[in-house]
């Protein structure tokens, strides 16, 4: 049996993006192709939203237009990613089978419109989407330009219709087996919720268990299971289409484009079904370099550190927000190189040419409505294309030499944000980002991984807000410390089991023996209320903490930081506990950036894991390694210039310049150096 490729084979970092020539007259296509040549663009994504064109009626398919597009792209010498076109319903399908339209959180059945508009549990949608994927695969499998299949597009949303309710009940029967087990998992004796028939189970929405929106639920267990169900239902849609492709093409890699830290879908549950990970990088602001580093690392971690693709990024501006600022000069190049530094083997755009109409007509594109090649945007795109061509295959397939792991867990995200009684101003991604930012600024090479990941190769494991503890993660974290590593976790961790029921023991539950303390009380305060933490064990740093203040009682742990304010002044806030040959740190509050950095750097220093530019703010150094060859990406995210001594001997692959360790390197704002380190320095 032929094994599918895990990543499309290429000779360089792939460069290109979403192209929709069906939106323009044929005479435009040749002009576009000449422009793509100027920009060194060799890979296009085709057919993402073509369902209505490819299947104008349930019993009729028409591939005339897509045939012409594929022929034209191949004739130009370019390759392409071919989509299954199922990211949006055609109007005839919604009208003929109205049950495919989603029902929203308020219980309203939607009519036709927008995209991401299909009920994932609809048998009609399941049948027709898989059939279309199979038809496309049968027609285009084996074409010389095809490098990957793109299933759906940016899966997301939720449906609460009767079909989803029935599918939810079926999933519950599969998961729990008996109603007794279900009732126990949901603590159903509370508020007279004991179920005596599977048909009594309702979907949790505004008409049932929720009262102030999706995050306010009377029964966290029910809502948590529905979040899992929704993610798995869309995952099954993906699997159905992939299976249809595999009937005609056993080897070409299959993916879909994720969206980074996207709350509705647990991408870790999806990861095994993708041949390679890909995602769309649209940061919410203009100073998002640390956040992007986290999301790149998260996507790379989905496939155990294998390279991923940036399937979409804007070359200039987006069109989905109230205000859509331009990328400043040099930022496109800087952010693109950052993605490569963190493991991207493709840098693709949305979109190649601006749409003439509808909601994305002002979204940035490589080519504007006039198709000009003398704009600033096109000039920067072409310059980056030339650099990627010059780089060639130097880092293809290279991996990050991480000795630090940061745990990211959708179950903890969901459970911590749908619960009452803690602090609704605490947002899981923000807590994770605070710790990742401290690791990133300190220059640590790290992986962002699931709680189920193999932790045996890491010296440091950081598990912030590990609210829901499932499986054997507590034992595996203890093993990290026992063999000499360091574990760092935070407040609100170890609170509930996989059913979102509190452990009937002291907080932090199964993590307590590892961290050597118990949490006696938890104080929750609104934004703006500050309690300072004096880190006497860390050079006396004083941190302004907020939102959550746990009051631990140490049971073997050493106190490194104490609260200075309120009735619990002098109580422990930061502790360290010896465990085996290693140690475990516990941070009982949400420290500010300075406090978080002090803790993280102390942990990294124990293992000599601080990066060479750890003390230079916003100068990033990320490393990829292939066959023992180290390539360091030096990226200046500052708004001003900075000068530093080079950390190693090597050659800048972008300029050919030889660099000697210790020589002064000057980085202007947005500057990039790709340093192939000499073997003697590795």
UniProtKB/TrEMBL annotation:
One GO-annotated biological process of the protein:
galactose metabolic process
One Pfam family from the record? Glyco_hydro_42C
Q: What class of enzyme is it?
A: hydrolase
Q: Which UniProt keywords apply?
A: Glycosidase, Hydrolase, Metal-binding, Zinc
Cellular component annotations (GO), alphabetically ordered:
beta-galactosidase complex
EC numbers listed for it are 3.2.1.23
Q: Which reaction does it catalyse?
A: Hydrolysis of terminal non-reducing beta-D-galactose residues in beta-D-galactosides
Q: Which residues are listed for substrate binding in this entry?
A: 115, 153
Q: Does the keyword Metal-binding apply?
A: yes
Beta-galactosidase C-terminal domain ranges (all copies): 623-677
Q: Which positions fall inside the Glycoside hydrolase family 42 N-terminal domain?
A: 18-391
The residues forming a coiled coil are none
Report domain Beta-galactosidase trimerisation positions. 402-609
The record's active-site residues are 154, 312
Q: Which family does it belong to?
A: Belongs to the glycosyl hydrolase 42 family.
Q: Which PANTHER family match?
A: BETA-GALACTOSIDASE GANA
In Swiss-Prot or TrEMBL terms, this protein is called Beta-galactosidase
Q: Which organism is it from?
A: Desertihabitans brevis
Q: What is the lineage of its organism?
A: Bacteria, Bacillati, Actinomycetota, Actinomycetes, Propionibacteriales
């Amino acid at each position: 049996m032929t094994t599918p490729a895990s990543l499309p084979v290429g000779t360089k970092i792939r460069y290109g993006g979403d192209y929709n020539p069906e939106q323009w007259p044929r005479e435009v296509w040749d002009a576009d192709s000449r422009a793509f040549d100027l920009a060194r663009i060799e890979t296009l994504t085709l057919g993402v939203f073509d369902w209505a064109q490819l299947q104008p009626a349930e019993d009729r398919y028409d591939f005339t237009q897509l045939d012409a597009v594929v022929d034209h792209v191949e004739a130009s010498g370019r390759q392409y990613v071919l989509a299954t076109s199922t990211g949006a319903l055609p109007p005839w399908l919604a009208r003929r089978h109205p049950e495919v339209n989603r029902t929203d959180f308020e219980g309203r059945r939607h009519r036709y419109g927008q995209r991401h508009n299909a009920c994932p549990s609809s048998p009609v949608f399941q049948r027709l989407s898989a059939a279309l994927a199979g038809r496309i695969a049968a027609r285009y499998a084996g074409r010389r330009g095809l490098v990957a299949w793109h299933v759906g597009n940016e899966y997301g949303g939720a449906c609460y219709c009767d079909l989803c309710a029935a599918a939810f009940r079926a999933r519950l029967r599969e998961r729990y087996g008996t109603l007794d087990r279900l009732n126990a998992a949901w603590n159903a004796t509370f508020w007279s919720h004991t179920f005596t028939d599977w048909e009594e189970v309702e979907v949790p929405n505004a008409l049932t268990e929720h009262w102030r929106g999706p995050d306010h639920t009377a029964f966290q267990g029910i809502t948590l299971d529905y979040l899992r169900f929704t993610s798995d239902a869309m995952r099954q849609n993906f699997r159905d289409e992939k299976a249809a492709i595999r009937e005609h093409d056993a080897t070409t890699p299959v993916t879909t484009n994720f969206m980074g830290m996207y709350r509705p879908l647990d991408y870790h549950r999806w990861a095994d079904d993708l041949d390679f990970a890909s995602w769309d990088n649209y940061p919410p602001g203009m100073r998002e370099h640390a956040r992007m580093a986290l999301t790149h690392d998260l996507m790379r971690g989905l496939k155990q550190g294998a390279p991923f693709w940036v399937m979409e990024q804007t070359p200039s501006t987006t069109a989905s927000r109230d205000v859509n600022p331009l990328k400043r000069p040099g930022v496109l190049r800087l952010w693109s190189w950052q993605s490569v530094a963190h493991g991207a083997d493709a840098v693709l755009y949305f979109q190649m040419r601006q749409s003439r109409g509808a909601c994305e007509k002002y979204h940035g594109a490589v080519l504007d409505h006039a198709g000009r090649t003398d704009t600033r945007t096109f000039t920067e795109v072409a310059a980056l294309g030339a650099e990627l061509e010059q780089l060639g295959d130097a880092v293809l397939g290279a991996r990050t030499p991480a000795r630090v792991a940061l745990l990211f867990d959708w179950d903890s995200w969901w459970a911590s944000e749908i619960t009452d009684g803690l602090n609704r101003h605490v947002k899981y991604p923000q807590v994770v980002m605070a710790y990742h930012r401290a690791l990133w600024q300190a220059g640590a090479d790290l992986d962002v991984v699931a709680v189920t990941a193999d932790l045996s190769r890491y010296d440091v494991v950081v598990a912030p807000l590990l609210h829901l503890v499932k499986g054997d993660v507590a034992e595996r974290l203890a093993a990290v410390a026992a063999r000499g590593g360091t574990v760092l976790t935070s407040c609100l961790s170890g609170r509930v089991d996989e059913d979102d029921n509190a452990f009937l023991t002291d907080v932090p539950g199964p993590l307590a023996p590892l961290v050597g303390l118990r949490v006696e009380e938890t104080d929750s305060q609104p934004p703006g209320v500050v309690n300072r933490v004096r880190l006497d064990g860390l050079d006396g740093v004083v941190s302004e903490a907020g939102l959550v203040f746990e009051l631990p009682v140490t049971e073997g742990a050493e106190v490194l930081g104490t609260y200075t304010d309120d009735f619990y002044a002098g109580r422990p806030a930061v502790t360290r506990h010896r465990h085996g040959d290693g140690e475990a740190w516990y941070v009982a509050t949400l420290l500010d950036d300075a406090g978080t950095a002090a803790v993280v750097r102390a942990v990294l220093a124990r293992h000599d894991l601080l990066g060479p530019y750890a003390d230079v703010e916003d100068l990033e150094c990320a490393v990829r390694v292939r066959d023992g060859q180290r390539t360091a990406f030096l990226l200046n995210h500052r708004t001003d210039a900075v000068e530093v001594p080079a950390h190693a001997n090597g050659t800048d692959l972008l300029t050919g310049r030889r660099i000697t360790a210790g020589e002064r390197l000057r980085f202007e704002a947005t500057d990039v150096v790709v340093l192939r380190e000499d073997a003697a320095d590795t």
